Amino acid sequence: MEQRYVTEYRAKGRKLEGYAATFNHEARIADFVEVIQPGAFSGSLTGRDILALVDHDPTRLLARTRSGSLRIAEDAHGLAFELDIPDTQPGRDVLALAERGDLGGMSFGFTVAEGGERWTGNRRELRAVTLHEISVVSAWPAYDGTVVQARAKTPRLNIAKLYLETV
């Protein structure tokens, strides 16, 4: 499974929201450049249990789609998410760091679907991936331009609309 880091998140209250991945932004990964194309996640967002973790550590679970504590959707900007922060030690730690602006960003773990990538020289375009998890990361993201925000609990809304209203 591959992992990529991004930096777009917001922290307010008992929720984190933002973007775990952004489209059409170049990221240097080892000796190549990678770009995520719009629609790359669409095939893996329904019918799968996707986790929200801290630093890709499955023992530091924050939320999951199966329980409804993690909501994920693609929009024109990227892979938007909203998660309810649990009252657990990892949840309290993430919330405190997010509110202070100390988090490194967001990341995601994925595998590439067959035919889901296109290489041109040292440039890789991700066109179809299977998303396994998103992670809040405490260090450095690979992709710039992502947002995580903590906010007070509100009724579940369209997260793309919610993001646009809060920026």
Mean pLDDT: 81
What order do the strands of the largest sheet run in, or round the barrel if closed? 1-10-13-6-7
Q: Characterize the biggest β-sheet.
A: 5 strands, mixed
Total helices: the number is: 2
Strands, count: 14
Distance between the termini: 32 Å
Domain unit count:
1
- What Rg do the Cα atoms give? 15 Å
Shape: globular
Proportion of beta-strand residues: over 45%
Helix content: 10-25%
Give unreliable regions as ranges.
149-167
Write the H/E string, N to C. Answer: EEEEEEEEEHEEEEEH
Structural class: mainly beta
Briefly summarize what is shown.
This protein is mainly beta. Helix content is 12%, strand content 47%.
Summarize the helices and strands and which ones pair or pack:
Layout (H helix, E strand, L loop, with lengths): L1 E5 L2 E4 L2 E8 L4 E3 L2 E5 L14 E4 L2 E8 L5 E5 L3 E7 L4 H12 L4 E8 L4 E4 L2 E4 L2 E9 L9 E5 L7 H8 L1
Parallel strand pairs: 2-14, 5-12, 6-13
Antiparallel strand pairs: 1-10, 2-3, 3-9, 3-14, 4-5, 6-7, 8-9, 10-13, 11-12
Write structural notes for this entry.
InterPro entries: Peptidase_S78_dom, Prohead_protease. Residues 12-153 form the Prohead serine protease domain. This is HK97 family phage prohead protease. Keywords: Hydrolase, Protease, Viral release from host cell. GO terms for molecular function: peptidase activity. The protein is mostly beta strands. It has one domain (2-166). The chain is 12% helix and 47% strand. The protein is built from two helices and 14 strands. The protein has helices at residues 89-100, 159-166, and strands spanning 2-6, 9-12, 15-22, 27-29, 32-36, 51-54, 57-64, 70-74, 78-84, 105-112, 117-120, 123-126, 129-137, 147-151. The strands form three sheets. It has a five-stranded mixed beta sheet, covered by helices on one side. Strands 2, 3, 8, 9 and 14 form a five-stranded mixed beta sheet that branches. A four-stranded mixed beta sheet has the order 4-5-12-11, with no helix packed on it. A hairpin with a 2-residue loop joins strand 4 (27-29) and strand 5. The longest helix has 12 residues, at 89-100. The radius of gyration is 15 Å and the shape is globular. 40% of the residues are buried. The model is unreliable at 149-167 (pLDDT under 50).
